[in-house]
Write a structure and sequence with these properties.
The complex is a heterodimer of chains A (about 260) and B (about 375). Chain A has about 260 residues and is of the alpha/beta class. Chain A contains eleven helices and ten strands. In chain A, the strands form two sheets. Chain A has a six-stranded mixed beta sheet, with helices on both faces. The longest helix of chain A is centred in the C-terminal third of the chain and has 17 residues. Chain A is globular. Chain B is mostly helical and about 375 residues long. Chain B folds into three domains: about 100 residues, Transcription Regulator spoIIAA, CATH 3.30.750; about 40 residues; about 220 residues, no CATH class. The termini of chain B are far apart. The chains are: A alpha/beta (about 260), B mainly alpha (about 375). At the A-B interface, α5 of A face α1, α2 and α3 of B. Bound molecules: adenosine-5'-triphosphate (ATP) and magnesium ion. The site of magnesium ion (MG) has 4 residues of chain A, from α1. The site of adenosine-5'-triphosphate (ATP) has 12 residues of chain A, from β2 and α1.
Chain lengths: ~260, ~375
């Protein structure tokens, strides 16, 4: 394997909202071109951690390094350049309600690329087709289902072919077939464009089929309790709560 | 690297380097088209042998180029294309051209008229049902006082009433001041200074007090009701309440209407008091009246009837403002934009209804 370079490096991060401690002793790295998953129970701080990585929240101590630059400096000096390189799909879609799906996707394209509008629209339709939403270009977010919103928000997140893609629970609320398709899309983008993927997920299936490495956050310890490739964690980690987290998988395997 | 252009005998060849950006190609589209035209060439070749990495942006750019030259009868040919590239290109083309414009029903005058009538009838129907529901709920309060959410109503009374006192007091005070001042200029000429008191007192008690107060309440409260309920609607809170077995009119609308109807008459009284204070101030300092003569004059002109007239009207206005505010909130269907529209419409129709009702009452009292 090639020499790996760290695209994100998190050192001694502690996140605290006022008096409430959310996470502590967070240390991990994400390497360029890998599919990395943050997993953990509901309320364990996954979304909060993700929002810190992209600079939306600022309640931490410690260092978050993006491509060897401190996030704090990036936010001061070159936040726009950084935003140009990343794509984010939020947990609840966050599509702009006053615009059609197509307009939702053309919006960032027209903002960041110097291309004709008709080309941007072609790309928007292409992106929508990637998440199996062709034919819905002219729909408003209020007129489509929850899962469709989710997929549309993924299409918007990949609009600019970002170098790093953050996906907050991309497959929750989707049927198994669509989930598999999204998984394949993530894998394909990762391969063809070498996009680094950071995803939050509850979906054990996703974890085992596409991710290279995971960290598992725990609500009680408020920190990372397991790290590594999913297979390794699954096979070797003896922590009770880690085992518990994978119980479903275990049952599934026994059932087969 | 920008694309390289070579003019051959009966074709133009564009060579794409490996790391070409979509923007660079698009930047050259005009130039390519111009060259094709001036040399009267009917074929464009795109050499993609060097291209082994490409993204959808480049594909979209090439497609754009092809569409433009096709329109002028020029064909496009790839040189050195791989199967993978052809597949991608074809797929991209089929997706973006497969789009069917959303179906538009062909209309003519009759159809539009029909649609208009039906939707009007429908909206009148929903309004009537809504109003009926409100009246039934109000009636229910007397049979079963528990229908009204008491704590919620009290909180709302504070928000609608107490919090509005400063602004209503200030505006009314200034209104009284202005009215007294303006009329004094005329009345002074006849030595009728003292009638300033009657003018301010009567005008405020019968007309301006209730109208000003209700308009301010429409702006402060009607809009807030519409925005609150509208937001609840889009975040599915209303749906949640419905399936929990709550009647939305009783749960959300009734406390708001009751609170407003109780509080606005009181605000109107405040408004009258402050306006007369303004008038009194002008009377004393500009018209050289004594406080006691001003108050005496006010006392003789203003009867309980006048004041009651204003207060009863303000009750009607309060009902209209609260009712239309909640109704607009409930009509929200889609996103945040709809909430904004509902809020605006709550204020505009609130004020409109106040003025309409007031004119109606004026005509009624004059001719009946
Ligand atoms: N702005 C905030 N202020 C205070 N506490 C917060 C804030 N946002 C989140 N929290 C707390 O942080 C914890 C983690 O929340 P987070 O949204 O990250 O959970 P999660 O792991 O994404 O869960 P889920 O899988 O349900 O989305 C929760 O206990 C929540 O109460
Ligand atoms: Mg979350």
């Amino acid at each position: 394997m090639m020499e790996k370079d760290k695209i994100i490096d998190v050192r001694d991060v502690k996140i605290q909202f006022g008096e409430t401690l959310i996470l502590k002793d967070i240390n991990f790295s994400v390497y360029r071109g890998e599919i990395f998953a943050i997993i953990g129970g509901s309320g364990s701080g996954k979304t909060v951690l993700l929002k810190h990585l992209i600079g939306l929240l600022d309640a931490y101590t410690g260092n978050i390094m993006i491509e060897n630059n401190n996030l704090k400096d990036i936010k001061e000096r070159s936040y726009n350049v950084f935003l140009n390189k990343i794509g984010v799909a939020f947990q609840y879609g966050a599509l702009l309600a006053s615009m059609t799906l197509e307009e939702n996707i053309t919006l960032p394209i027209m903002e960041h690329k110097k291309i004709d509008e008709s080309v941007a629209q072609d790309i928007a339709r292409w992106k929508l087709s990637l998440v199996d939403l062709n034919g819905y270009e002219k729909y408003y977010p209020s007129d489509i289902s929850g899962g469709m919103k989710k997929r549309a928000s993924i299409a918007r997140a990949i609009a600019l072919n970002p170098a790093i893609l953050f996906l907050d629970e991309p497959t929750s609320g989707l049927d198994p077939v669509t989930s598999t398709e999204i998984d394949e899309l993530i894998k394909r983008l990762n391969k063809t464009l070498n996009t680094t993927m950071i995803l939050i997920t509850h979906d054990i299936e996703t974890v085992f089929s596409i991710t290279d490495r995971i960290i598992l956050l725990d609500k009680v310890d408020k920190t990372i309790i397991a790290e590594g490739s999913p297979q390794d964690v699954y096979n070797t980690n003896k922590n009770e709560r880690v085992i518990k987290f994978f119980e479903r998988k275990r049952k599934g395997l026994n059932g087969n | 690297m920008p694309p390289m252009l070579v003019i051959e005998e009966n074709a133009i060849c564009v060579t794409l380097s490996n790391n070409i950006k979509a923007e660079e190609l698009l930047f050259n589209v005009k130039d390519i088209r111009h060259k094709l035209k001036t040399h009267n060439i009917k074929e464009l070749k795109i050499d993609i042998q060097a291209l082994n990495k490409y993204d959808d942006y480049l594909i979209a750019a090439i497609k754009h180029l092809e569409k433009i030259i096709n329109r002028e009868g020029i064909t496009l040919k790839f040189i050195g294309e791989t199967e993978q590239f052809t597949d991608f290109y074809k797929k991209f083309n089929s997706i973006s051209s497969a789009i069917k414009s959303t179906e538009v029903i062909k209309t003519n005058f009759i159809i539009s008229l029909g649609i208009f009538c039906l939707s009007t009838i429908n909206s009148i129907k929903t309004q009537l049902i809504y109003l009926g529901d409100i009246f039934i709920s109000i009636g229910l309060i007397f049979l079963k006082p528990k229908t009204l959410r008491f704590n919620e109503t009290v909180t709302l009374m504070k928000r609608v009433g107490v919090d509005a006192i400063p602004i209503i007091g200030l505006i009314s005070f200034l209104m009284g001041l202005i009215m007294a001042f303006m009329s004094s200029i005329q009345l002074k000429q006849f030595g009728a200074n003292i009638y300033v008191a009657s003018l301010v007192g009567l005008a405020m008690a019968r007309e301006l007090g209730p109208i000003m107060t209700s308009i301010i309440v429409a702006g402060r409260t009607g809009s807030a009701f519409a925005a609150e309920i509208g937001t609840m609607k889009i975040s599915e809170e209303i749906d949640a309440l419905t399936v929990m077995g709550f009647n939305i009119t009783r749960f959300l609308v009734l406390p708001r209407i009751v609170a407003t109807v109780i509080v606005v008459p009181i605000l109107t009284v405040f408004s009258n008091v402050f306006a007369n204070l303004g008038g009194l101030l002008v009377g004393i300092f500009i018209l050289n009246l004594t406080a006691s003569s001003y108050i005496h004059q006010l006392n003789t002109t203003l009867s309980v009837n006048h004041v009651m007239h204003g207060i009863l009207k303000s009750i009607l206005f309060a009902f209209l403002v609260a009712e239309i505010g909640c109704f607009r909130g409930l009509t929200v269907k889609k996103g945040t934009e709809d909430v904004g529209r509902a809020t605006t419409s709550a204020v505009v129709s609130g004020i409109f209804l106040i003025i309409l009702a007031d004119s109606f009452i004026a005509v009624l009292l004059t001719y009946v």
